[in-house]
């Protein structure tokens, strides 16, 4: 026990005395947590510029144009009489879509014939394309239902019956767990976990290489590994609440889960990542090798996490590989607790995976520490 306590104190002292290690474990987390969310603060894309080509020039065509402009997702920047002029605006990047209202639009509506409206949208940026397509299709469907209902009322149909015939299955969409429907509320909770993992891996790896100055403390390999893990856990006891609680609150990201389940689950995450970091530190001999390796695997870890590349779409071998990365189960659990209000009892499987990773990587770290101790004694 004395060896464990000595290792704990020694590791904390060396972390605070070594600026490269401290800057990664603390300063980098603070920097990324505060500045990474900045591009996503607008949450949702609004008022995408589109051009309307009104070839009909009637009351109905102008009404459709006004309705499209009134929708929250798109904004009509100009109404032009011909398609080539609208095409030039799209090529100049002054607009992202063209709505063509054909000649005879009002006549076809009044006569009960289909009156197609053409949409040309820039699909090189899928988020913009989705907003334009959904907004224009929603407006045209609504206008079509109103025209049908008015025609039925004019023929003597009851107003309620006419509305039911025109729109027999009205849909009310409610965004659960993300009421703003925003990109930040979806992305940032998972991104914060990846930031914590990457900085902790690099920091522990640097600590194991930069601070490898002399023989290990007089303790068993198990006590040395546990002491180091406790030191990192003590440090993350301040970093994790800042990153997962304070910063989301600062940026207005919805959080309905309890604080205790969140922090209790985060303990498993920190232990698993810390143990993996000790394995990294025991594998590489220099700090440069640690930095290069962590930089190389940063993007693969991002895709394996399961929120940019859905786990359901992963091949089974890749899915098993992803489970070996602590952030995969951590994102499953911490997002469900924070954004969906899940309890610890609901997360038995990902919690068990994190526990198994902590034990497994911890065992490898003990073996590497034991080999290091044997090397030191031989010298």
UniProtKB/TrEMBL annotation:
Pfam families: ABC2_membrane_3
Main subcellular localisation: membrane
Lineage, opening ranks: Bacteria, Pseudomonadati, Pseudomonadota, Alphaproteobacteria, Hyphomicrobiales
Membrane topology listed for this record: Multi-pass membrane protein
The protein, known as: ABC transporter permease
Top-level taxon: Bacteria
Keyword Transmembrane helix set for record: yes
Compartmental location: Cell membrane
Spans through the membrane: 16-35, 186-208, 229-250, 262-281, 288-309, 350-368
ABC-2 type transporter transmembrane domain sequence ranges: 23-366
InterPro entries on file: ABC-2_transporter_component, ABC2_TM
Organism the protein comes from: Aquamicrobium soli
Keyword field: Cell membrane, Membrane, Transmembrane, Transmembrane helix
